[in-house]
Write a structure and sequence with these properties.
The structure is a homodimer. The first copy, chain A, is of the alpha+beta class. In chain A, about 20% of the residues lie in helices and about 30% in strands. In chain A, the strands form two sheets. In chain A, strands 1, 2, 3, 4, 5, 6, 9, 10 and 11 form a nine-stranded mixed sheet that branches. Chain A has a two-stranded antiparallel sheet with strand order 7-8. In chain A, strand 9 (about 160-170) and strand 10 form a beta hairpin. In chain A, helix 3 crosses helix 4 (about 185-195).
């Protein structure tokens, strides 16, 4: 018996997140179906985290146990012949039998992408949040640092080691790295920084909003299609 | 009465090209439906060229005539409320009444995108051709110059003023600029350069293949999802 750590990548548009659930298509369900066809039995697949409905992953890690004699690249290639086009395996390696994709994770990086162009872009509709207001990226980047080290923002526990906002052309990317992201956390932080951008949270006020732990004082939850689980660090 | 030159951008995945046709969804049909809702009558819309089924456009130009009193930005914004998410208007300006989007076009630029990564990428599936062989980009870039100035390649008339192949990470971009691209032309040129890459057309042999005007000696037609009409120059 060996434990395999498999890395996948997915376009989450069509899925209700990673986790299997009744009456809704999930990435895990599609993945387990592919696994069943490759390994010829239903295997228990453990993921590194839940992801919300419509959220994407540039890197998502999971484990499964098998005694099948197959190379790591063979696993990747075989899975890709069975997975739908919006999910792809990209790496496979053996890990110790006590390795757990969630508990062994040291930190995760999420990115959130905003398209700041004037008119809708058909190629970015499903992969960014189209936000039309002018954005002062340097200001937001400075303000984003207030989230670093916060432990209980808006009722959620979180410890972040990095928070950054930068622009490339019309794309603005928010990056958050940390070890305790909970439900909607990143999307609330982005929504809150957009409130800062719009002056709804005044300059110098953000630290206090965070300290208040009052969800109502934070910003809107930014929509899911801009969010990517970007890196999982072990 | 004034003539408007409107620039749009579209993800061609769902469409059988620009041109209206029976029993198949076209970009022109969707656009004319949006125009009818904005201008409150069915207007004649003239495009700058046909595009093949599944091909994308970063820039596509068309004209229509109207006596409606509306600003250029107003036209763009109104159209975008009626167009589906995979088609977007990006610019509008008035042109002389004798302007024709096809005949007045001086040249067009097409790009063709190849994804050269080892494993499938779910975000690139519909927007690139996944080609797994190693690619010698400098060699192909040199060989691509043979297409410049060709007038009758593989039975099609074409005059190209620019041909370039370059790589950025796992994405290889073929760029062709010219004034007479005909049906499948760019996709045949790309397919032929891939034959060169694979040694099916030997070093030094391409000029002769082109001169032979024999379609059977050229390469496969590269698939549509990698092709973009990128610029229309007036």
């Amino acid at each position: 018996m060996k434990r395999l750590l498999i890395t996948i990548k997915y376009d989450g548009t069509a899925y209700h997140g990673w986790q299997v659930q009744q009456n809704a298509l999930s990435v895990q369900e599609e993945f387990q179906n592919a696994v069943e066809q490759v390994f010829l039995k239903r295997l228990d697949v453990k993921g590194c985290s839940r992801t919300d409905s419509g959220v994407h992953a540039n890197m998502y890690c999971l484990t499964l146990d098998t005694d099948m004699n197959i190379t790591d690249d063979g696993v990747v290639l075989a899975l890709n012949t069975k997975l739908p086009p919006d999910i792809s395996a990209v790496e496979c390696r053996e890990v110790p039998l006590d390795f757990h994709p969630r508990y062994n994770c040291v930190s995760k990086e999420y990115v959130y992408k905003i398209y700041n162009g004037k008119f809708r872009d058909p190629f970015l509709e499903k992969y960014t949040f189209h936000y039309r207001y002018p954005v002062d990226v340097d200001y937001l980047d400075r303000e984003a640092k207030h989230f670093i080290g916060t432990h209980d923002f808006a009722g959620f526990c979180s410890v972040n080691s990095e928070a950054e906002v930068k622009r490339e052309g019309d794309i603005i990317t928010f990056t958050f790295e940390g070890d305790g992201f909970l439900y909607n956390m990143v999307r609330i932080m982005v929504g809150t920084l957009l409130f800062v951008n719009e002056g709804k949270i005044k300059e110098g006020e953000l630290a206090e909003v965070i300290a208040s732990k009052d969800r109502k004082r934070a910003g809107r939850t930014a929509p899911p299609q801009g969010l990517y689980l970007n890196k999982v660090n072990y």
